[in-house]
Amino acid sequence: MNINNKVVVITGAANGIGAAMARRFAEAGAAGLVLCDIDSDGVLEVAEKLPTPARKRVALACDVAGKDDINRVVAASLDHFGRIDIFCSNAGVIVTGNESAPDKDWQRAWDINVMSHVHAANAVLPGMLERGNGYLLNTVSAAGLLTSPGAAPYAVSKHAALAFSEWLSITYGASGIGVSALCPQAIRTKMIKDAIASGAGNAVASGGEMLSPDQVALQALEGIEAERFLILSHPETQRYVEAKARNIEGWLSGMRKFIAS
Length: 261
What we know:
With 261 residues, this protein is an alpha/beta fold. It has one domain: NAD(P)-binding Rossmann-like Domain (Rossmann fold), CATH 3.40.50. Helices cover 53% and strands 13% of the residues. A 7-stranded parallel β-sheet has the order 3-2-1-4-5-6-7, sandwiched between helices. Helix 4 links the parallel strand 4 and strand 5. Helix 9 crosses helix 10. The longest helix is centred in the middle third of the chain and has 29 residues. The protein is globular, with a radius of gyration of 18 Å. The termini are far apart.
């Protein structure tokens, strides 16, 4: 799907990949951009700096952990632009810990990293299916394909996010709905920096070059336009996934050695 003349909603747009996607999509000629984030001041600042007329950009406060907030964003987008062509469910959170992590941490990871995608799809699919076209981009993570040592709630929730994205593609792909799962490794964002500081992001940081959000946003743009399901920021991710599929025992053994080193 070509971004030009499309109405795009982006969650988690106050910084990082979300803000970079907003800039890239504006430059690519998006007809309208709805930028959402729990950081209302930050997302307003990003919107105001876009090279688009004020009528073509909307900034909204949104906590993606809440279904009502996502429904409100979708309703406001339809009121302003009349349609949503592409919904980028990008907001996410790294939650560290193991099986003993508090229930509230597991729930937070589930609500933000999984249910936000479910609520977004539930809100926008009826209109897209009625028109016979639309696109869903879910920002997952390479952790959804592999794992994330030191962050069990994050790894588990990202696996679920990937599974839901696959389900959407299988279920609605023949009805004109495109689906992509953006699965980056190390990106220079505040979220990754915080994870590295806590020790949970070391595996990600050591897995390849740390890219800028702008580089990943360009890959997201190209992936949507090519209608690729998996959008991988790092070429080594493909190799890791193939190695895991060929020899799961060997992959698990290698990960154990990595953690022990």
